[in-house]
Amino acid sequence: MHTEHGTQVTDPAGLPQRALCSSCGRFVGPYETCPYCGARQQGRLAVRVVKIVAVVLATVGLLALWWAARQLPIPTVTAAEAQGTMNMAYVEVQGQVVGNRSYDPQSAYLAFRIDDGTGEIYISAYRDVVLALVAEGRVPAPGDEVTVAGTLRIREDRVSLTLNVPEHLEIVRPTPIDVRAGTLTALDAGLRVRVQGQVRDIFSPYEGLTLITVRDDSGQVTVAVDQVVTQLTGALPPLEIGQQVTVVGAVTVYRDTPQVVPASVADVQIVGGAPIAEAPETPPTEEPPIAEETPLPPTPTPTPTPAPRALGSLSEEEVGAWVRVQGEIVVLEGFSAGVKAILDDGSGQVTGLLWMNLYNDLPDPPAFDVGAEVLIEGEVGVYQGELQVVPEIAADVTLLSPAPPLPWVDLGSLTAADVGRAVRVRGVLAPPETFSAGQRVLIDDGTGTVLVILWSNVLEELPQPPEAGMILEVAGMVGIYRDTLQLVPRTPWDWRP
Amino acid sequence: MWELLGWALVGTVAASLLALVPALHIYNVAGFLIMFSAALSPYLPPESLAFLFLGLITGYAMLNTIPSIFLSAPDDSSLFIVLPGQKYLLQRRGYEAVVLTGIGGLGGLLALGLLTPFASRFLPVIREVLRAHMGWILWTIIAYMLISEWPKGTERAPAGLRRWWEAWQSLTAGLITFFLSGLLGFVLMYRSIVPVMVSYQNLLPAFVGLFAIPWVIQNLLARVQLPEQHIARNVDAPLMTIFQGTAAGVLGGLFAAFFPVVTGGIGGFLAGHATAQRDERAFVISQGASKIVYYVGGFLLFFVPGLHLTRGGMAWMVSTLYTSYTPERYYWATAVVMVCGVVAFLLSLGFTRVVIALTRRVSYRVLSWGTLVVLVIVVFAMTGVGGLAICAVATGIGLIPVLWGSRRMNAMGVLLLPIALNMIGAAEGVAGFLGLL
């Protein structure tokens, strides 16, 4: 092995005078005293002095440097100030957490972005730092105001900072502002809000992301619960459509559309229900791990349900508004994609438009018929000058009193005066006949016959298609075409083999 | 494309000249360029700057052997060349030592070229495999570094404690050096007094103090007189020796280039242990290969598509302005390095003659004082008064192994200790204990 020693001149040729003893002239090299004659060599700096200086510098100097370093505050920089020459600096940055976070529990990696008003800075943490933050329940969420100190990394395309010490992350979670779902805009991005409303839809576009549509009377907003939230704070409970929930979260923008991103699954609370438990790995703490500017009320209180609007008070100016109406179904007719029910509450009439999938989801679709008293929540729309209220989900339709059964009629008694009536008949089918928009089939009840028209949208949904000799009950609207009476089932539910 | 080669050749020639300035590290020169990169950008776009840096690092890695051998002013990666280099020097064979390291450097370049077709396929895999093992590998290196040093003594001291101390003082000094430099590393990592605007040079004063200045002080104390140098027409190196030295150097250099925190000095240390006991010529060649592979190969990793590996100061500086994405750029960078390496080798032969002529006319003592002044000016210019203070403390620590005869490599504790503790999650506790959080 090669060892290191002080440099020694071993070749006598060209030796300087200083390397020779001033008394006897023999080679003394670095000796202070000649080993041959004992003469003390003049003009040499004692190695002992150098040793003392080295030790003093290495110890006292290091202590002084340590002391001086401790007195220095960590410098604060902004994204705009950060530049290449600051690479690897230990600095502090402040800003609001924006966008999605990345978290990998396997490798214990956490990353998020903050915006300090001058630009964005990517914060990342690894291994033990992440484990400590997760254990302490101090993982920043979108909307949080954070102060982070760490090692600055400047890249061509971004400024990033590595958090080396859990204590160098301070989080302040702003107090949420109560807002109505429909009032949120992209300009609210970054605000921490609280929305109360009804779960309208639960959708998972891909594994790890759950989108919950929450609606109140002002409109709707999407609540985005990504994998990071569930990994860090536990699983979402099986929410059901129609449940009233309160959601606290930060407003973020996805494709110009605002959405609410909760920091924890505990921020999604079922109104009147028990709050969703925190993740089991989060230990209970006396102090909340993340400081809230003002503590939240523990249990959300249900918002009082507004009284139904008088139908006569609705106007085209309210198109797009969410309303709640009540009335009796005076007419129910089918169309290619659903049914239209004309409601009457005495003050006016409005069409309730139910898409077929929604109608099928009703607890008892045949009970939603002429004579039923219903309560409908929906969006106001206008179609061909006709005011409509369009519910979104089956929970928007409440059957206050079911429709009485449709009247039985003998086919022989049907006349042109019955056109527009909803009736029921029973009889035997003749062979069906196909035409361009569906099938027609003659039904005979012994007193007479009538042509039953099955439009293709109804025909395709029938549990049992028509065939000759089939005995069944058929409900529908009486119509007339080229002086011939017809019975037109409005939905597949009118076809009762 | 040819413009990029042009910039790289400019860098090579510039670095070859600058490498002759004792203890002026090419990272300092690149640092100045980064400082003025915004102003230079109309003439020197980021990609051209990256290739200029490629030329700079290649030229520097090849020619910094000259001041290391002739002026004993090494950086941490050429630490192990100094002693065998001086041995050659005092045998009037300094020129030959430069040529041997140059041969090692050319071998290192050849190895880098041969690795190019496989690098983008295998290195990302190796990186993923090693990712989870970095901590214990680093601690193994530290352990090997510390326990591979043996007690030294003349056995002439009186028996008992004094004899024990004579043998063990170098070991004790080594451990103290490692510990003190590690503490210095903690201070620099968490609360450096270097101004935040020049943090990218945070380690410069420490490295100059730990490695360069102690050599210069030693030269001043030892009053070395250089003998007349012989310009040899051939070198004493059989092919097998060249192969052995190059292979060991390439392995050490690759390890240093690929592994975080492990610098060229440690790579050279490992390469040295693989060769020194066999043949001193192989040792010198291995140091040349290791140095080139560490500096140039480490920077080339920055160009490997899909690897996203930033190793070494040069890559860190360039990464603030430029990112390479395509295989085509990587192949081009490798080709440029080959050309620049050969040019630098040829330049090293001429410049060695220049330095020999210089040392004939100017006394070694004057050159040493000049080197010291240059070092202090560089540190002050880059990092200010704070940097000088760090440099002074680091010099004190760097002198301990010089004065007590232990391995200077222990001063690498400045990087190894904080990073290795960080990798096992203990750095935070130590920093907290030191009140640096």
Shape of chain B: globular
Mind describing the biggest β-sheet of chain B? Answer: none
Shape of chain A: rod-shaped
Low-confidence parts of chain B: none
Indicate the proportion of strand residues of chain B: under 5%
Our estimate of the beta-strand percent of chain A is: 35-45%
How much helix, percentage-wise, in residues of chain B? over 70%
In whole angstroms, the N-to-C terminal distance of chain A is 99 Å
The number of distinct helices of chain B, counting runs of at least 4 residues, comes to 18
C-alpha Rg of chain A (nearest Å):
41 Å
Rounded to the nearest angstrom, the distance between the terminal CA atoms of chain B is: 48 Å
Write a structural description.
The complex is a heterodimer of chains A (497) and B (437). Chain A is mostly beta strands and 497 residues long. Chain A has five domains: 16-72, no CATH class; 84-173, Nucleic acid-binding proteins (OB fold (Dihydrolipoamide Acetyltransferase, E2P)); 177-292, Nucleic acid-binding proteins (OB fold (Dihydrolipoamide Acetyltransferase, E2P), Beta Barrel); 311-401, OB fold (Dihydrolipoamide Acetyltransferase, E2P) (Beta Barrel); 411-496, Nucleic acid-binding proteins (OB fold (Dihydrolipoamide Acetyltransferase, E2P), Beta Barrel), CATH 2.40.50.140. Chain A has helices spanning 47-71, 127-135, 227-233, 356-361, 456-459; strands at 90-104, 109-115, 120-126, 145-154, 159-163, 169-173, 177-179, 192-206, 209-216, 219-226, 244-254, 257-261, 268-270, 291-292, 322-335, 338-344, 349-355, 373-383, 386-390, 397-401, 422-429, 433-435, 438-444, 449-455, 471-481, 484-488, 495-496. In chain A, strands 1-2-3-5-4 form a five-stranded mixed β-barrel. In chain A, strand 25 and strand 26 form a beta hairpin. The longest helix of chain A is centred in the first third of the chain and has 25 residues, at 47-71. The relative contact order of chain A is 0.06. Chain B is globular and about 70 Å long. The longest helix of chain B is centred in the last third of the chain and has 41 residues, at 364-404. Chain B has helices spanning 2-18, 26-35, 37-40, 46-63, 65-70, 79-90, 94-131, 134-147, 161-191, 204-222, 239-258, 264-275, 280-301, 312-319, 327-361, 364-404, 413-423, 427-433. Chain B has one domain. Chain B is mainly alpha-helical. Chain B contains 18 helices and no strands. In chain B, helix 1 runs parallel beside helix 4 (46-63). The chains are: A mainly beta (497), B mainly alpha (437). At the A-B interface, helix 1, helix 2 and strand 4 of A face helix 2, helix 6, helix 9, helix 10 and helix 14 of B.
